[in-house]
């Protein structure tokens, strides 16, 4: 276990999470910000990338497990992403559709923010979110982040505008820390 919140456990992904990842990453509606569902090969590549991140950085995207039911509901964590030609720590989250709008993403993202500041000692954390993904943008704002920039990423043959959100450790009020 990496993190625990009121309702969730976040732990490293393992190869046995492949079928759960398929349910998540192969759902067209869930993956709309990525221009559609992933193939089996793309899911395995995604999982391999997370496993490699654990070895390279000692963090990455983690499995989100509901405490009450032990259900695998999605993933959330911190990865290193390129922004303005440098690597920055990014909080990312992706949930199975049936768990949308229940506060899980915000709960996990806040826990990741605290882990990023207090354990990993990052002075700032980012979320880089496709401009059409308003739900994820709302999670970033609830996580204390503010929009600071817009960039364009080229992915799957498409130019995709993304909004860059950021929060700095000194901007988080002690009363806002869960």
TrEMBL record:
<dbReference type="InterPro" id="IPR016181">
    <property type="entry name" value="Acyl_CoA_acyltransferase"/>
</dbReference>
<dbReference type="InterPro" id="IPR051531">
    <property type="entry name" value="N-acetyltransferase"/>
</dbReference>
<dbReference type="Pfam" id="PF13302">
    <property type="entry name" value="Acetyltransf_3"/>
</dbReference>
<dbReference type="InterPro" id="IPR000182">
    <property type="entry name" value="GNAT_dom"/>
</dbReference>
<feature type="domain" description="N-acetyltransferase">
    <location>
        <begin position="8"/>
        <end position="165"/>
    </location>
</feature>
<protein>
    <submittedName>
        <fullName>GNAT family N-acetyltransferase</fullName>
    </submittedName>
</protein>
């Amino acid at each position: 276990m990496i993190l625990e919140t009121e309702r969730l456990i976040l732990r490293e992904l393992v190869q046995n999470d492949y079928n759960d990842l398929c349910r998540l990453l192969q759902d067209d509606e869930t993956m709309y910000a990525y221009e559609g569902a992933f193939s089996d090969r793309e899911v395995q590549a995604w999982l391999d990338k997370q496993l490699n991140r654990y070895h390279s950085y000692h963090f990455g995207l983690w499995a989100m497990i509901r405490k009450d039911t032990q259900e695998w509901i999605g993933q959330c964590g911190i990865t290193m992403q390129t922004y303005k030609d440098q690597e920055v720590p990014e909080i990312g989250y992706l949930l199975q559709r049936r768990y949308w709008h229940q506060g899980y993403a915000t709960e996990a993202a806040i826990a990741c923010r605290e882990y990023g500041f207090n354990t990993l000692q990052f002075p700032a954390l980012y979320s880089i979110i496709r401009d059409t993904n308003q739900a994820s943008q709302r999670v970033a704002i609830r996580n204390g982040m503010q929009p600071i920039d817009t960039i364009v990423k080229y992915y799957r043959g498409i130019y995709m505008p993304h909004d860059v959100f950021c929060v700095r450790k000194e901007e988080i009020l002690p009363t806002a820390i869960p």
